Amino acid sequence: MKRALVTGGSGGIGAAICRRLAADGCYVYVHANLNLAKAAALAEEISETGGAAEPIAFDVTDAEATRVVLDALIEESPIQILVNNAGLHDDAIFPGMSAIQWHKVLDVSLNGFFHVTQPLMMPMIRSRWGRIVNITSITGLTGNRGQVNYAAAKGGLHAATKSLSLELASRGITVNAVAPGIIQTGMTEGIFDEKAIAAMVPMNRAGTPAEVADLVGFLASEQAGYITGQIISVNGGMI
To answer: What DSSP letter does each residue of 32-91 carry, written as one string?
Structure first.
């Protein structure tokens, strides 16, 4: 049974990814930072439906705390599937954006990627098999007003995805990014109404977390072994 870690696993998209990977036979670590109870409830739900999961908590922006937790996890066997899903947005037009808003968003998405991924590398490399999937955003491809910090963080992840994929391709490890468009989650509630979505999305609807999770599940599978360094957007035809 392959072991999978999903950061931000207690959120809307993260939870769907956890459910999908568990259904595919993985042992899933459901990560949270502050909301461990929500991660624990999801892990219990997965276990009750025949899957295998457990909650885990650490702050991805804290390099040392993250490494301590991960070193204990990989002491005996590697984590071979990693989904870097943790992220946040704190929107403001750039002239009015504070340094705190800038650094907070980049710290979670971009520094968090490094803090989580780097400690897992050598055991994964030694196993000669791995899947790394970075959850980004359509904003990292197109940009968006009021989200210069978020676009910078996700665009940085796109570049990191491509570079890391080149380093790991000969080791049986793939690295890809999934860039969702408008997805029905708590993060988008109240931001887009049906009329706005219809105007923006050719499919006239928001996507679902399960639709994102289905792509992640495929990229994490044996069948996707020849796909690496790609940024695949799930956006209903927006771009």
So the answer is: ESS-HHHHHHHHHHHHHTT-EEEEEE--TT-HHHHHHHHHHHTSSS---EEEE-------
- Among 27, 29, 150, 226, the active-site one is 150
Q: Give Cα 204 to chain centroid, integer Å.
A: 25
Q: Convert the pLDDT of each residue in 121-178 to its tens digit.
A: 999 999 999 999 999 999 999 999 999 999 999 999 999 999 999 999 999 999 999 9
How far apart (Å, rounded) are the C-alpha atoms in residues 108 and 126?
28
Answer yes or no: are the C-beta atoms of 59 and 33 closer than 8 Å.
yes
Burial class from Cβ neighbours inside 10 Å (0-12, 13-18, 19+) for residue 196 reads exposed
- Catalytic: 150? yes
